[in-house]
């Protein structure tokens, strides 16, 4: 599964939530230029 945020922080959060809901086995991440926080990634670590 491939997700693109197009450098949009809000889309990055939505993509992360979708990946969690789809129960993916792993994630490779390249953060967007507009990323200001990392709390949405912490949810991935808990899985």
Keywords:
single chain, 47 residues, mainly alpha, 2 helices
Can you describe this structure?
With 47 residues, the protein is mainly alpha-helical. It is globular. 43% of the residues lie in helices and 0% in strands.
Describe the secondary structure blueprint for this structure:
Elements (H helix, E strand, L loop, with lengths): L8 H13 L17 H7 L2
The Cα radius of gyration reads 10 Å
Shape: globular
Helix/strand structural class: mainly alpha
Percentage of residues in strands: under 5%
Tell me the number of strands: 0
Average pLDDT works out at 88
- Report the uncertain regions: none
End-to-end Cα distance: 17 Å
Q: Which percent bin holds the helix content? A: 40-55%
Largest sheet: none
User: Helical stretch count?
Assistant: 2
SSE string, helices as H and strands as E: HH
How do you describe this structure in short?
The protein has 47 residues and is mainly alpha-helical. The chain is built from 2 helices and no strands.
């Amino acid at each position: 599964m491939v997700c693109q945020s197009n450098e949009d922080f809000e889309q990055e959060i939505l993509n992360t939530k979708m990946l969690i809901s789809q129960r993916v086995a792993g994630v490779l991440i390249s953060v967007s230029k507009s990323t200001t926080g990392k709390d949405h990634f912490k949810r991935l670590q808990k899985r």
